[in-house]
Design brief:
heterodimer, A: about 300 residues, four-stranded antiparallel beta sheet, 10 helices, about 35% helix, globular, B: about 425 residues, mainly alpha, 19 helices
């Protein structure tokens, strides 16, 4: 859905993006992570066609963003990290204006406003001035403006900042819903636990370069490593030797009563392994796939990057 | 469907209260005037309605047009507008007539009163007068929108706080006398033209230019790239217009035209130079497109000032070639011959000075520093040299003098330009080395 090649962006005296090459899969929710100054916002603004890069190509749904920015905007929604609202317009007027400005037909506008308000739980606030809303509600109106035309691509820069936990959960549910509708989302946030709830891909930036761009949800099938964690009633040195003999185990290590292993099999092989462990007489207290969360994944990629630099 | 930008502005500008208040207040003002003890009520009403139009649409309207961009930038809603799929033209006219819609509402009431009282007072030129007022308002509103958007990229606080709006209002106050003393004829290109008609056509023309300029600037803001032909074309058209006032039957019109065009091109080069992004990134983009032989992209990224700088040299050459018939016998011949090329070289040198500061790694105060140094080079150094009794030194700083051969003057200014350009090249290398 998004293809970027050789993207370089300079600010005076500072290179914000350095030869960035990446693709974003259609229908994915990509978590854009990185430290402050990594180039996340600049990347989003370039994709949105709000900034002209020094060089490079950006294509969204097959269209060149630099050559056809207005056409691309019809397919795209963008929420800036420092967004603003028209304070003196009501929520309904804000949404209606966004719908009109994105070229929705007059006959579709009322319906789009109602659906968007419902999705964002704003139906009761439609006649309220946006200037009188709380930070969280303003954020929801801004998201509503970005999605009212049902874009193919949605770029969200820190969408959950200022939202309470309940609103964040609601936002996560909304993003999952939008993804289920076929929308491609690129979401930047510093709160990785929140991104973990709905992201299917990780895009990690550092110093204007891509550290990692990969799918997070590994579907279990043969040949793909998955981390498994086995809990034991007590430490048992014999289990490591037993595990190393199993053909579908790539590696394993033990800390106290817990064994972490890289498993190459599918769910059937996993069930068989548990059965064999119990049959071999090992006192297993827990046995589960140990999914690496986004924070761990990100920190691991940063550590690997720093290691290669040294 | 109604233009979304226009409709949004209507939502913001109109309420039931405002809808009633405007006709009520203007009506009361006219009623009070009609009931007062004056001799020629119709004529007084005509003047009062015109004056009220100027206040409501020209002054107050300009302030609202100023806010059309300033408020978007301040309230961070500009990105949302740029992300919309509105065409540049829809955005331009939506802002132009939307932000000032309430003023036009009041203005139309004034125009109706002015038209009726003009007919009653048997003012023969009332349609011309009123059309001039309307065109003048459009010119001001479009001009301020174009200026604000063009200069908004500089991020200067005075612009972000609406400083240009106040400048426009001062401009209005200064130009008002030109509208009030407009009886008789105007001589333009040695032709006598009715002044009222001339003002109307002039204002209509400049209103069209301002609307076009606003549309072009909106195009750029919406990332719709344009080729840089309009700016130099406007310089040529403005020169043709202004030269008409200076051409006297006895002088060679071509020489006058070229001299005026040279001055206009120089002034417009400085204007663009001080209001555009001139940092090293602009030049990096140009160099990359040049290497890729992407000439369209190169032109799309070219700032405006080099286009009029090129015109400055073209008109300098034409001015030198189209000397008056009596030039050789005139005492100021040397200066007359050398001045156009010297002026063009001076503009090149000054542009290089601005670039020298703009290309620095930390260029936050580049504009101020460049202005200061230009003031020193062009004014203070020549002044002190002359005061100190060193006219030769003064001449070396500012070689506009008929005491020395024309070739020497051109050579001295060419040396200035060469030094300034060498400094720019050095700066580029230094900046690139520090960034590598």
């Amino acid at each position: 859905m998004i293809e970027i090649s050789g993207l370089t962006f300079d600010y005076p005296g500072h290179r914000a993006l350095d030869n960035v090459n990446l693709t974003v899969e259609p229908g994915s929710v990509t978590a854009l992570v990185g430290p402050n100054g990594a180039g996340k916002t600049t990347l989003m603004r370039c994709i949105a066609g709000l900034e002209t890069p020094l060089e490079g190509k950006i294509r969204v749904a097959g269209m060149d963003v630099i050559e056809q920015p207005r056409e691309v905007h019809r397919l795209m929604g963008y929420l800036s990290d420092f967004f603003g609202l028209y304070q003196d317009l009501t929520v309904a007027q804000c949404l209606k204006y966004a719908a009109m400005a994105q070229g929705l037909a007059e006959s579709d506008i009322a319906g789009a406003v109602a659906v968007t308000a419902q999705r964002l739980d704003l139906s009761a606030r439609l006649q309220q001035n946006s200037g009188s809303l709380s930070r969280g509600l303003r954020q929801r109106v801004a998201i509503g403006q970005a999605i009212i035309h049902n874009p193919k691509v949605l770029l969200l820069d820190e969408p959950a900042s200022g939202l309470d936990p309940e609103a964040r959960a609601g936002l996560a549910a909304l993003f999952r819903l939008l993804q289920a509708d076929g929308m491609t989302l690129l979401v930047s946030s510093h709160i990785l636990a929140e991104l973990d709830e709905y992201s299917s891909h990780l895009l990690s930036l550092r110093d204007g370069r891509v550290l990692e761009n990969r799918a997070l949800t590994a579907h279990p099938h043969l040949g793909i490593e998955r981390p498994l964690r086995i809990g034991l009633l007590q430490a048992d040195a014999g289990i490591l030797a037993w595990l190393e003999q199993q053909p579908q185990i790539a590696s394993c290590k033990m800390h106290d009563h817990v064994i972490e292993l890289a498993f190459l099999g599918d769910h059937g092989a996993q069930a068989q392994l548990l059965k064999d462990l119990v049959a071999a007489g090992f006192a297993v207290t827990s046995f589960a796939e140990h999914k690496e969360n986004l924070q761990q994944s990100y920190l691991r990629s940063v550590a690997a990057h720093l290691e290669t630099r040294q | 469907m109604m233009n979304p930008e226009f409709r949004r502005n209507l939502w913001l500008s109109f309420s039931t209260h405002r809808l009633i208040a405007m006709p009520a207040l203007t009506g009361l003002a006219f009623l009070a005037l009609a009931m007062s003890d004056i001799n020629d009520t119709a004529k007084t009403m005509y003047t009062a309605a015109s004056a009220l139009f100027i206040f409501i649409v020209w002054l107050w309207g300009t302030s609202n047009a100023n806010s059309a961009i300033v408020d978007e930038l301040r309230d961070r809603t500009w990105d949302q507008q740029r992300m919309s799929s509105l065409s540049p033209w829809s955005m331009t006219w939506g802002k132009l007539f939307g932000a000032t819609s309430f003023n036009w509402y009041g203005g139309l009431l004034c125009l109706m009163v002015a038209a009726l009282s003009g007919i009653a007072a048997q003012q023969p030129a009332w349609p011309v007068d009123l059309l001039s007022l309307v065109a003048g308002a459009v010119m001001l509103h479009a001009g301020i929108i174009a200026l604000n958007l063009h200069t908004g990229q500089l991020g200067m606080r005075v612009i972000q706080r609406g400083g240009l709006g106040w400048l426009a209002i001062v401009f209005v106050l200064f130009t008002l006398p030109a509208f009030s003393s407009r009886d008789g004829n105007i001589t333009w290109w040695s032709t006598e033209i009715d002044s009222k008609l001339f003002i109307l056509v002039s204002v209509l023309f400049f209103a069209a230019c301002a609307v076009f300029a606003a549309w072009r600037v909106v195009c750029n803001a919406l990332q719709v790239r344009t080729l840089p032909w309009a700016w130099p074309l406007f310089a040529c058209v403005l020169s043709l217009y202004l030269a008409g006032f200076f051409v006297i039957a006895s002088t060679r019109p071509l020489f006058t035209l070229h001299s005026v065009a040279l001055s206009i091109a120089a002034v417009m080069t400085y204007a663009a130079l001080f209001t555009e992004q001139t940092g090293i990134l602009t030049w990096k983009k140009l160099r990359l497109r040049q290497r890729a032989a992407d000439w369209r992209g190169w032109l799309e990224h070219l700032p405006l000032w080099p286009t009029t700088l090129l015109l400055t040299f073209v008109f300098a050459l034409f001015s030198t070639l189209a000397q008056p018939d009596d030039a050789a016998s005139r005492p100021d011949y040397i200066a007359l011959f050398a001045a156009p090329l010297c002026l063009a070289l001076m503009v090149l040198r000054d542009a290089a000075v601005v670039l020298f500061f703009a290309f620095a790694r930390n260029n936050r105060r580049a504009l101020g520093a460049a202005m200061l140094y230009l003031l020193v080079i062009n004014v203070l150094l020549p002044f002190f040299a002359n005061v100190a009794g060193l006219p030769l030194l003064g001449y070396l700083f500012l070689p506009f003098s008929d005491q020395y051969p024309a070739v020497t003057s051109i050579f001295v200014m060419a040396c200035h330009a060469a030094i300034a350009l060498a400094l720019v090249i050095w700066r580029v290398r230094e900046t690139e080395r520090s960034q590598a």
